[in-house]
Specification:
The complex is a heterodimer.
Chain A (H helix, E strand, L loop, with lengths): L14 H6 L2 H19 L6 H8 L3 H15 L7 H17 L4 H25 L4 H20 L13 H4 L1 E3 L2 E2 H19 L1 H11 L1 H6 L4 H27 L10 H11 L11 H20 L4 H26 L1
Helix pairs in contact in A: 2-14, 4-9, 4-10, 4-12, 4-13, 4-14, 5-6, 5-7, 5-12, 6-7, 6-12, 9-10, 13-14, 13-15
Chain B lengths: L1 H5 L2 H19 L6 H26 L7 H18 L5 H24 L5 H20 L11 H5 L4 E2 L2 E2 H19 L1 H11 L1 H6 L4 H27 L10 H11 L11 H20 L6 H35 L1
Antiparallel strand pairs in B: 1-2
Helix pairs in contact in B: 2-13, 3-8, 3-9, 3-11, 3-12, 3-13, 4-5, 4-6, 4-11, 5-11, 8-9, 9-11, 12-13, 12-14
Classes of the chains: A mainly alpha, B mainly alpha.
């Protein structure tokens, strides 16, 4: 059983000390360390264009990870995000076939994302079903629909101006995706840390019943969070489809795992109630640097997935082992 | 009381299965010939074995997403042992498969029990680690039919009283675990630990250790299925049974296992597995593309979990009514 006695410290930590000992600082140190190691192990690492390419490893996933962070802080989870990408991408591919232009495609992508998010949100908040099972179900349902539509075929022939979202550069090596990633990070930082809505998200994660009694419309907030993850999956689908310039039903397969890993690595408690956007941003860079560094060393993708799986368990296990060892 | 038995999940599900078979037989009468039904059962045997293990894990409020990866890793390990030592008798191979699978399950169990990491995080992580390990062991190569020894391949096909051993193993597991779950202390502890962890703790049940044994059993069954799978299909490779964990969870949810723990039966899990097995066998027969499979199991999960929630809600009300009558 957990110990309920609380220790009251003799002296509060100074803000600087607290910041130095935070998860974000630790993560930043890890990121810098990986950066330095990478630049020594591969001569191709320290190159502006290579580093710019590196950002594509995480920008799309991180866009979803921000929304996922809010959802996990509120005590829910969405495992269907990668399947929403597949469905939104398939819908965009189908829209190309009937002759829709780039603005139409963007609307289709965002719309499908919103509809999928609303569907998840409806099942969880209105029907009162556990989000883990619901989104495991919709994870196969959404991708299943892509398989029904596409089978073993692929959609191609996206309009040439559509390629800007995933392949365009705003300035020198700064890609459009990276700018979008930065803007979205800022928006989510403001939402989570500077608004009433953000405080409500924390309150719900810490104590849903208490939040309900203090006048927060828990179901509505959760519904909006599912809408946001759906919407961000739609945005990611537009970027990824534009970058690959083709759609197969297996697109973004297994991304939900990497996105959840990114969120948890960023210091968000999987049990809800705590976490921060800067943490997720640094975690995105850490994961991007690790996969890019291993890629430069010719490590195959599936071995990288071992590293990611181990990271996921390790970042949660190590602090707990440390606690156990100290007491 | 009689009404309760009539309306029980198992009876309803049996009714649904009979109905499903009736619909299929109108389009393809040969489907319900006893020999074909025996084939369908044999095809579904792996799903039944895994669903039993998954049900026990879900009973204790956990989830095991690593079963399919465990199956594939154990399958690869026993295949490599068979290639290296073709003379090793099958009973020893089976023993190795069960022990190795149980060992992998114990890894999940220890992380959940001792470090109190949420099961979904643990098994998402071990899922990718197990898959990656198969790649490291096999270097991405397949082990094909001609490399296995004859006895290794023959075992699951050997017929006894008209049914292959594969089917008999599934039947034996259903009977064995029905007895374990209803007649042993450990079996009851699984229900208690998931139904009400606090009460279980006060009753002297170590909830964490119970969860550890649930993962161990799930792992052992996955290991056993791993051998049966590679020997039946005479092939072992990295992506063997990829995504199968979703079908396993689907089978449990359809079989009336409550994802919040404490509710579920072995027979229910078996019926849930059979329901999915019949659908996947019937799709090609009634001329529907196999690409529908994924969406159908996703839809089935969502419908089943909605029905479960409804049924459990009403059950609560009935208890209250009866209590009112009693006073």
């Amino acid at each position: 059983m957990t110990d309920t006695t609380r220790f009251i410290p003799d002296r509060l930590q100074s803000p600087l000390e607290r910041r130095l000992k935070s998860w974000e600082t630790l993560l930043l140190a890890v990121a810098v360390a990986i950066f330095i190691v990478n630049s020594f192990t591969s001569p191709y690492f320290l190159n502006a264009w290579n580093l710019s390419d590196m950002t594509f490893n995480f920008t799309e996933k991180a866009m979803i990870a921000f929304a996922m962070a809010l959802l996990i802080i509120a005590g829910e989870i969405d495992l269907s995000v990668a399947s929403i990408i597949a469905l939104a991408s398939t819908a965009m591919g189908a829209a190309v076939q009937i002759g829709l232009g780039t603005p139409g495609l963007v609307l289709v992508g965002l719309g499908v994302g919103l509809i999928c998010g609303a569907f998840n949100g409806f099942l969880v908040t209105k029907m009162g079903l556990p989000s883990i099972v619901v989104t495991i179900g919709t994870m196969s349902l959404f991708r299943g629909i892509s398989y029904i539509v596409l089978g073993d075929q692929a959609y191609r022939g996206y309009p040439s101006d559509f390629s800007f979202f995933g392949q365009g550069y705003v300035f020198w090596v700064i890609s459009f995706e990276f700018v979008l990633f930065a803007i979205i990070a800022l928006v989510y930082f403001v939402i989570l840390h500077k608004t009433n809505f953000g405080r409500a998200v924390y309150a719900i994660g810490n104590n849903p019943v208490g939040a309900e009694f203090s006048g927060i419309r828990v179901a509505r907030v959760k519904f909006i969070l599912f809408l946001l993850t759906g919407l961000m999956s739609g945005v990611a689908a537009i970027c990824l489809t534009s970058r690959l310039a083709s759609t197969r039903p297996s697109i973004a397969f297994g991304w939900e795992l990497e996105i959840v890993t990114m969120v948890v690595l960023g210091g968000v408690s999987i049990l809800g109630g705590s976490g921060s956007i800067p943490g997720v941003v640094i975690a995105a860079f850490v994961m991007g640097l690790v996969t890019f560094g291993l890629g430069l060393l010719n490590v195959p993708g599936i071995v990288m997935s071992i590293v990611i799986g181990a990271l996921l368990i390790g970042v949660i296990a190590l602090p707990r082992l440390w606690e156990k060892w100290r007491t | 009381m009689q009404k309760q038995i009539l309306m029980s999940r198992e009876v309803l599900l049996t009714g649904a299965i009979v109905l499903l078979l009736a619909i299929i037989s109108t389009r393809f009468p040969a489907f319900i010939a006893p020999s074909n039904l025996a084939n369908v059962f044999n095809d579904t045997a792996p799903l039944i074995l895994l669903a039993i293990g998954q049900m026990i894990v879900i009973l204790t409020r956990c989830i095991d997403l690593s079963v399919a990866a465990n199956l594939a890793l154990t399958g690869m390990v026993v295949s490599m042992i068979n290639v290296a030592m073709p003379g090793l008798p099958v009973p020893i191979i089976i023993f190795i498969a069960v022990a190795f699978g149980a060992l992998l399950g114990m890894v999940n169990g220890v992380l959940v029990w001792k470090l109190e990491i949420p099961p979904i995080v643990v098994t998402l992580g071990t899922m990718t680690i197990f898959r990656g390990t198969i790649f490291l062991l096999s270097e991405g190569k397949w082990i094909n039919a001609h490399e296995f020894s004859e006895t290794f391949k023959a075992f699951p096909r050997t017929e006894l009283l008209g049914l292959p051993l594969m089917s008999w193993i599934a039947i034996a597991a259903v009977i064995f675990f029905s007895v374990v779950m209803s007649r042993t202390t450990l079996g009851r502890a699984f229900y208690a630990a998931g139904g009400n962890p606090h009460a279980a703790t006060y009753a002297g049940i170590d909830v964490g250790r119970t969860q550890f044994w649930a993962f161990t059993i799930s792992g052992a069954l996955a290991g056993l299925t791993g051998y049966l799978w590679v020997s039946r299909f005479a092939v072992a490779f990295v992506d063997l049974a990829g995504g199968f964990e979703l079908s396993v969870v689907a089978a449990c949810v359809i079989g009336g296992v409550a994802i919040m723990g404490g509710i579920g039966t072995v027979v229910g899990a078996m019926l849930g597995a059979l329901f999915l097995g019949i659908i996947s066998n019937a799709l090609p027969v009634v001329n529907i593309s196999p690409f529908w499979q994924l969406a159908i199991s996703g839809g089935a999960i969502i419908i089943a979990v909605a029905l479960n929630a409804q049924a459990n809600r009403e059950k609560g009300r009935i208890i209250l009514k009866r209590a009112e009558h009693a006073t």
